[in-house]
Amino acid sequence: MAHMHSWAAGLVLWGLTQGAAVAQAGAHGMHQHGHHGQAMSNEPERRELVVFPDAMRAHTLRSMRLHLEALQKIQNALSQGRFDQAGQIAESALGMSALSDHHAHENVTYMPAAMAQMGAAMHRAASQFALVAQDASATGDFKKPLAALAKLSGTCVACHAAYRLH
Ligand code: HEC
């Protein structure tokens, strides 16, 4: 923590002790001096800061980038009418089957309960998409898979709106 301003250290401690409290983090405009680019925005910082050990944070962000890559691959497969493949990507990269690969159980111990629930909602939505995509491979109907995909990406958006990592 040596590199951090004292307010930031205080914020981290606050985050550790008040893990469940949301939204006050930016109340004093501290984000203006932040290290994560918030200075580019005039929006007050309302996301709760969650503190992970460094290695876990790096691993989590890497897995996030893989999540985004999976969404891209799913969209690409869908655009070519390859419903089965879209479903397989969703299930293996984001669905319930992906849980063990993502050190999920270890991560969960550092997460506020509501954040862990949002992670679980993402895995459920991905598995749900996989089922819908499988059905669509018989009907050729795009609407339901697209709606399920929007629901899945909505789980990403919801968590990003609520939390940030130190
Ligand atoms: C349970 C919460 C949660 C869910 C669900 C979630 N993310 Fe994230 N994601 C985060 C947090 C927290 C960060 C760090 C944000 C920050 O510190 O500003 C992050 C960061 C990212 C990043 C930036 C990675 C980097 O290298 O900085 C990407 C890309 C990303 N997420 C993609 C996704 C996608 C795509 C999904 C859905 C398929 C998803 N995330 C679902 C919590 C989540």
Architecture blueprint of SSEs:
Elements: H1 6-17, E1 48-50, H2 54-79, H3 83-93, H4 104-108, H5 113-139, H6 143-162, E2 163-165
Parallel strand pairs: 1-2
Helix pairs in contact: 2-3, 3-5, 5-6
This protein binds heme C.
Please provide a written account of the structure.
The protein folds into two domains: about 5-50, no CATH class; about 55-165, Four Helix Bundle (Hemerythrin (Met), subunit A), CATH 1.20.120. The model is unreliable at about 1-35 (pLDDT under 50). The protein is about 60% helix and about 5% strand. The protein is mostly helical and about 170 residues long. The chain is built from six helices and two strands; from the N terminus they run αβαααααβ. The protein starts with 5 loop residues before the first helix and ends with a strand. Heme C (HEC) binds near residues 118, 119, 155 and 160. Heme C binds near residues 65, 68, 118, 159 and 160.
